[in-house]
Structures are given as structure tokens and as C-alpha cells.
What does this fold into?
Amino acid sequence: MKIHLFDPETGVYQGEDFSDDLSMRHEGEADASHATTIAPPPFRKGEVPVFKMAENEWEIKRVN
It folds into this structure.
């Protein structure tokens, strides 16, 4: 399955990768701690997706 990686401290999008279903279901696995199956929304130059773990969703922020 395709997963979307983010920085575990800031939530900033770091790209995508692939993982098997099992590793995403086990808490404590490296993949599960900083990855989601939820794709970030489209973004443009000067913007960055940030994953909000509490809300389980992406937010687009402007970059200066």
C-alpha cells in the first residue's frame, strides 16, 4: 500500500513510500509512527502539507 511520510515532530510532508498492511497496523513500528495512508491535498510552490495527527488530516501551510 502507498503511505505518505511526515516528520514526527513537525508533521511536514516528506514524500511517499510503500509498506505492507501489517506494518501499518502495529503500533510502535517505525512506519506507523510517521506515516499515513491519507494522501495530502494538492499543493503549490510556496506551500507545504503538514499532517495534524490529533485530527488525522493534512493542512496546507504557506512557506516564506
